Amino acid sequence: MIVGGGTAGWMTALALARMGPPHAPHISLVESPDIGTVGVGEATLPTIRHFNRWAGIDERDFIRETQASFKLGIEFRDWREPGHSFFHGFGDHGPEIAGLSPYHQMIRLGLGDALDQFSLPAQAARAGRFAPPSDDAKSLAATYSYAYHFDASLYAAYLRRLAIGAGVAHVQGRIDHVARNPETGLIERLSLDDDRSIAGDLFVDCSGFRSLLLGGALDVPFEDWSHWLPADRAWAVPCAGTDAIEPYTRSMACTAGWRWRIPLQHRIGNGHVYASAFQDDQAALDALIDGLDGPPLAEPRHLRFRAGHRRRFWAGNCIAIGLSSGFLEPLESTSINLIERGISLLAQLFPTAGLDDVLAREYDRHMINAFAGIRDFVILHYRLGRRTEPFWQAMRAQPMPDSLADQIALFEASGEIAIRDPESFGEPSWAAILFGLGATPRAYHPLADREPADAIERHLARGRTLIAGHVATMPPHRQFIDALAAQPISRS
Ligand SMILES: Cc1cc2nc3c(=O)[nH]c(=O)nc-3n(C[C@H](O)[C@H](O)[C@H](O)COP(=O)(O)OP(=O)(O)OC[C@H]3O[C@@H](n4cnc5c(N)ncnc54)[C@H](O)[C@@H]3O)c2cc1C
After folding, report:
1. What is the top-level taxon of the source organism (predicted)?
2. What is the extent of the structural domain holding 255?
3. Is residue 44 assigned to a domain?
4. What percent of the chain shows pLDDT beyond 70?
């Protein structure tokens, strides 16, 4: 039984339905037509493509149905200081050089500020071009990946059609009571406000910020991280798009937070995430509206949230996936990725042989690690720049998690980057943000000096030329989308 029909609910329903019998025939999803979905969540990470493949989604179909565009990474504007820009691309910055990560030579040669030039996705994105990566692992065109931007409500509707087609039962009604077994504490039944009641054996809570089952009925406490990530509100509004569609998200630092710009085929999604302790709602809305590329296409929506997660993700016979389990501001588009990870773990640990707390503990261990890794990566963005507004000064002055303090100190002392969660952001992502914000390590790997500096400079210059040459062969992003969308579609 899945509770909630937002992105999390329908992704979970479709993925579990695709596991096939014996699970598929027993999946029901209940959602309230009166309680809306959060309706934002338009930028993703490349892992969404694994999910779509698992769900049997044809890319052409998906691109048409959700008005999607391709995403090669994120441009960060004004984060280091006003006027400065850098790119976090979905790809590396070149292969190892003489057995060492290329970043050591970049540090040695003082090229940290030129990092984007060694990233194919960053260069293609800035040129407004897109083509999918090559399958030939030896090719330069295999050094990057891509994700999507899509219309969140179209994506949920699309998943709903596919899930119902795959056998998921759709129940519409508002849950007003959750009944638990008095002895075991397990959830047994949900009562709807029209007197219907539905029984189940396993419940997936996808009820959004309400966290109806895990946080509500089971009372699992919230691990609050708002002292590290104080942004707690957002305005979101779509506006008219332009003819060219940029194949990347833009994130622009502001007085007390940051704005997003997500170009889709039919419009641009915009939002302003801010800390209400440092900026009032009207000023935040004004900053968003002033920065739009075109006229707003709807009334701005106001959202409130809190950084952190539930202390348990799986308790008894209830697993929370999506906003019901926790939230970290969408700076690196990680929420849908966390939904994917939750779904994939649930499939892996599915209690086919009955409930066993070891499954829940293993699930929790992975998800807590995933949240902590993303938390550190997101906080990093606020730590190193030179913006002077009170919000930014406060962000730099406050204590940070020990794991992040160690990461920054390690990089500054040695140019090394420690990867604690290999399933999340890798070395190129950390390097993009660290160099992008202006971190300057005091040392690099001693073996980097074994190669003459001029030979390395020639090697790197050749890399830059190859990237520029390859980017010139890629089609403009809009042209690529139009050609793809025009291809015949195979429906799953
Ligand atoms: C400002 C902001 C920007 C974001 N941007 C991104 C982004 O760029 N990328 C990204 O990956 N993620 C982003 N996210 C997160 C993303 O929107 C969510 O992870 C995603 O939409 C999943 O939401 P959900 O399905 O968990 O909850 P919701 O969409 O809130 O759905 C909750 C569902 O539960 C149902 N429900 C609730 N209570 C009841 C009840 N009593 N009875 C019956 N049904 C009930 C509702 O009807 C609804 O169907 C963003 C979030 C915010 C707040």
Report:
1. Bacteria
2. 233-302
3. yes
4. 98
C-beta 269 within 6 A of ligand 1: no
Catalytic status, residue 71: yes
Is the beta carbon of 335 within 6 A of some atom in ligand 1? yes
Last residue of a domain, one of 269, 284, 302: 302
Over residues 97-129, the pLDDT tens digits come to 989 999 999 999 999 999 999 999 999 999 999
Tell me which residue has its CA closest to atom 6 in ligand 1. 41
- Does ligand 1 come within 6 angstroms of the Cβ of 133? no
What's residue 488's pLDDT? 78
Looking at residue 318, its pLDDT comes to 98
- β-strands 187-192, 147-149: how paired? unpaired
Would 491 be classed as within a structural domain? no
* Tokens linked to 416: 């090394």
Residue-wise pLDDT for 160-190, tens only, equals: 999 999 999 999 999 999 999 999 999 999 9
Helix (H) or strand (E) holding 30: strand 28-31
Count of CB atoms situated within 10 Å of the CB of 56:
14
Lowest mean pLDDT among 36-40, 95-99, 126-130, 244-248: 36-40
Domain count, the chain: 3
Q: Which two tokens stand for residue 321?
A: 């996936």
Give yes or no: residues 202 and 314 share one domain. yes
The answer on 386 and 418 residing in a single domain is yes
